[in-house]
Amino acid sequence: MISIFITAFIVGGLICVIGQLLFDVAKLTPAHTLCILVVAGSILDGFGLYEPLIDFAGAGATVPITSFGNSLTHGAMAEAEKHGLIGVLTGMFEVTSSGISAAILFGFIASVFFKPKGKI
Amino acid sequence: MDEKKYAKLEQGMSPKTPLVRNMVFAFLTGGTICLIGQFISLFYMSFFDFTERTASNPTVATMIFIAMLLTGFGLYKKIGQFGGAGSAVPITGFSNAVVSAAIEHKSEGYVLGVGGNMFKLAGSVILFGVFSAFAVALIKTILVKLGVVSW
């Protein structure tokens, strides 16, 4: 029970260190870095490597943006397994719908209730 | 001044990035955010009917909600200055990008401002995420059909 909290901290921290290296050493913009991490998560899931990481690190693997790529691929592959090629399209947002819906919904609510003050 | 000369000059002028310090802060900030996420998913697993794997959905939604509040009150910016990539890489950074763009463009109106600019940064993440997921799933489906690998 305790161990998953420790691995979550370490694995989540390490993924962020990779992001920081892409910022500082490769001199990439945040947008490029996030895109690379999402694509990396998606490819890792293609090899079936991301789910074991989630079992090992829990939120340390599901909270970083890499898990967004993973869940897109995972939904697409799960549907493709059942329905063939068309499942790649129909299953894409199956797993990750809550993240996208929450971001859209809360983004709109925030824009209604908060006033812009300088750069946020 | 040609481009190479300018790049050399810029490199000499700009302050050296404290790489180790940035990495340590990114590690601590990112790790702490993931640790909070683990506590939230423990909450969903023990009080609602979620398993280890399905708990990530409500956890992510909750983290996005918390990041919305932090962004709205102007606190996420401070975490970002301290944590660098540690605050940008977790899903809270994605939420921060959406929410801050939405609030910032409020003055241009809800349809053109908020609606049009909300996914300015997050849109590229969604685009490349969807495209790579499409490519990976397509390749895997074809390989399975050919009998090279199994699901």
From TrEMBL, chain A:
Q: Which domain of life is it from?
A: Bacteria
Q: What is this protein called?
A: Stage V sporulation protein AE
Alphabetical UniProt keywords: Membrane, Transmembrane, Transmembrane helix
> Where do the TM regions start and end?
6-26, 33-50, 95-114
Q: Which InterPro entries match?
A: Spore_V_AE (IPR014204), SpoVA (IPR005562)
